[in-house]
Amino acid sequence: MYVGVQILASTISSQKVFISDLYLSHNPQISADGIDALFVCAMRCNRLQTLSLAGCSLAHAYWARFFPFIRSLHTLDLSHNQLDDDALIVLGHCLCHNTSVTTLNLSHNRFLTYGGHIFETLLSTNACLQCVSIASNPIRDKSIWKSLGLGLSMNRVLTSLDLADTALTLDDLQLMGRIAF
Q: Would you state the pLDDT for residue 171?
């Protein structure tokens, strides 16, 4: 599938194609090299505004290294993948200083324990992220809620946070609220 994605990325990068929204959802056969090619395309063409890779069986976030150089991407949908805590940390660090992504969907992945601390850093340093979804991640580490609260306390742009079906308890919500508000 790499060759096909590479051809698609090359086509999108051409000056004759003006695709701004690309939906590749539920294509689990896209390889890591194919994902790299897409992000190189997004970096070069500077027109891609929406990229959906939902349900593509992504387990790593090595391609996130391109985020600091992508200026046009506003919406990134990585839902329904297999991104774990390590991928969340890589992704979070790479998005900290990104100036274009406003909507990030990380719902239905595999964040369970230690990776959630990145939310404090991400939410306190990223100045354009307005909508974040981490819904349906079976979060087990209660310190994630503290990190979210700390990040929210320093954030002035986030307007939507989806925490549905994350095992959030009333105590967790109170802890987050005491810190953030």
A: 87
